[in-house]
Amino acid sequence: MSDVPDLAAVKAYLLDLQDRICAELSAEDGRETFRTDEWTRDPSDPKGMGGGGRTRILAEGAVFEKAGVAFSHVTGTKLPPSATAHRPELAGRPWVAMGVSLVIHPRNPRVPTSHANVRFFSTTDATPTSATPSSPTTGHSSLGLGHSGAAAAPVWWFGGGFDLTPYYGYEADCAHWHRTAYDALAPFGPGYYPRFKTWCDDYFFLKHRNEPRGVGGLFFDDFAELGFSRSFELLRAVGDAYLPAYRPIVARRKTEPTTETERDWQLYRRGRYVEFNLVWDRGTLFGLQSGGRTESILMSLPPLVRWDYARTPAPGSEEARLDTDFLRPRDWLTAR
Amino acid sequence: MSDVPDLAAVKAYLLDLQDRICAELSAEDGRETFRTDEWTRDPSDPKGMGGGGRTRILAEGAVFEKAGVAFSHVTGTKLPPSATAHRPELAGRPWVAMGVSLVIHPRNPRVPTSHANVRFFSTTDATPTSATPSSPTTGHSSLGLGHSGAAAAPVWWFGGGFDLTPYYGYEADCAHWHRTAYDALAPFGPGYYPRFKTWCDDYFFLKHRNEPRGVGGLFFDDFAELGFSRSFELLRAVGDAYLPAYRPIVARRKTEPTTETERDWQLYRRGRYVEFNLVWDRGTLFGLQSGGRTESILMSLPPLVRWDYARTPAPGSEEARLDTDFLRPRDWLTAR
Question: What whole-number distance in Å separates Cα of residue B336 and Cα of residue B329?
Answer without folding.
Answer: 16
